[in-house]
Amino acid sequence: MPNYMTQKMSSGQCIPITYYRRQTQPHVSHDESGAFTQAAKQNYATFNHINVNQVDEGKFNRGQGVPTGGKVFGI
User: Fold this and answer.
1) Cβ-contact 57, 9 below 8 angstroms
2) Which is nearest to 15 in space by CA: 63, 55, 66?
3) What span, in angstroms and rounded, lies between the C-alpha atoms of 45 and 75?
4) CA distance 64 to 56
5) How far apart are CA 22 and CA 39, in angstroms?
6) CA-wise closest residue to 19 among 8, 27, 29
């Protein structure tokens, strides 16, 4: 099973979205995880027509399967 990074983004009354991206290596670098978080945060802000600073970052996870349940988006 491939390993994915996952992280949920939310903001106020907006529906939370769990983002995922395939890892390039078993141990994710800080650069890779940071780029994933920023891409997810930007996508969530754009999708919901809000400022990036209004987005609440959920817990970052690595080594996960593709998330199921709720709103999920691969970036």
Assistant:
1) yes
2) 55
3) 14
4) 21
5) 13
6) 8
Residue reference for tokens 């529906």: 15
Task: Give residue for tokens 């994710």.
Answer: 28
Please tell me the distance from the alpha carbon of residue 42 to that of residue 37, in angstroms, as a whole number. 9
> Mean pLDDT for each 10-residue chunk of the chain (75 residues)?
89 96 92 97 98 97 92 95
How many angstroms separate the Cα of 57 from the Cα of each of 2, 16, 17, 28, 34? 24, 10, 10, 18, 12
Q: Which amino acid is at 17?
A: I
> Which H or E run includes 52?
none
Q: What are phi and psi of 48, to 5 degrees?
A: -100, 5
Residue 1: per-residue pLDDT: 52
Q: Where are the domains of the chain?
A: 4-74
